[in-house]
Write a structure and sequence with these properties.
By secondary structure, the chain is of the alpha+beta class. It is built from six helices and ten strands. The longest helix has 23 residues, at about 185-210. The structure holds a DNA duplex (16 and 16 nucleotides).
Length: about 250
DNA sequence: ATTGAGACCTGTCGGC
DNA sequence: TGCCGACAGGTCTCAA
């Protein structure tokens, strides 16, 4: 898509999680994608009009790229971008929790879905001080705090569990306990920030090489399996927090 | 204001 | 084999 123009945009239905914006197809047609970026879990295509196409995969969304003329249509193909490069970029999303919108020039910062987001976890601005400040006084659990996109942007259910395990921190512990009353970091805040960065960097590294499968996680989806920490071997537990499954090792995570 | 529960939607999987 | 409930990687809204 990058440096190509939209020749044609086809919608298979009027909405995903929300309706497509008005004139979605005509607003995109003819526009050049000047760059592709990401903020949290939102994919951002900067357009020659200075507008931005904002996209989210939701739970079950995916993109695939096919050659123009040989593009197959599958169930749940909801958006088809035919590009000037000869690529056909297809958004498929069975559950339709995905999302697309076009945001006007300069309005990205005030878009409802983007304006409240916390720091990017891999940016230098996300450090123990930022995390401690965000968790100060929070009554909720550490796990729930990590899923709060205002605390840190783009962490999801899998990597929240993964990071907590690497940092040896219990998901059940109150979020406020990683900060002093004045919002300064305690030792766990330093460990957690390092763990989040490490787990995400490793995941990106892996994803670049291999498909999504196999024994990829430290704890996620490993209920009753043995803890992988050296010398631990405790049984991984599963708990529900805020309606989401959390996986952790009660033996080594405090 | 913060927090947790429920809703959105379809596919898959395990148990009966 | 077939049906049924539980669950799934996200986010929004609503009520307490």
């Amino acid at each position: 898509m990058e440096h190509a123009r939209f020749l044609d945009v086809t919608l298979g239905r009027p909405d995903l999680r929300a309706p497509f914006p008005r004139h979605f197809r005509t607003r995109l047609r003819g526009q050049l994608v000047s760059s592709l970026n990401r903020r949290a879990k939102y994919l951002l295509a900067a357009l020659s009009s200075r507008e931005t196409l904002v996209m989210h995969l939701g739970m079950s969304g995916s993109f695939r790229v096919e050659a123009d003329g040989a593009a197959e249509r599958l169930p749940h193909d909801h958006v088809v971008f035919r590009m000037s490069s000869g690529a056909v970029v297809i958004f498929n999303d069975p559950r339709r929790f995905g999302f697309m919108d076009i945001v006007g020039a300069g309005a990205l910062g005030i878009h409802p879905v983007l304006s409240a987001l916390g720091p990017e976890p891999l940016s230098p601005g996300f450090d123990a001080f930022a995390l401690a400040r965000a968790c100060r006084g929070k009554k909720t659990s550490l796990k729930a705090a990590l899923l709060d996109q205002r605390v840190v942007a783009g962490l999801g259910n899998i990597y929240a569990s993964e990071a907590l395990h690497l940092a040896r921190l219990s998901p059940l512990r109150a979020a406020s306990t990683i900060a002093t009353p004045s919002g300064l970091p305690r030792a766990p805040a330093h460990r957690l920030v390092a763990a989040i960065k490490s787990v995400l960097a490793a995941a990106i590294e892996r994803a670049a090489r291999e498909a999504y499968r196999g024994e990829r996680f430290r704890v996620y989806d490993r209920e009753l399996a043995a803890c992988r920490r050296r010398g631990c071997g405790g049984a991984i537990k599963r708990r529900t927090q805020g309606g989401r499954s959390t996986f952790f090792c009660p033996r080594c995570q405090r």
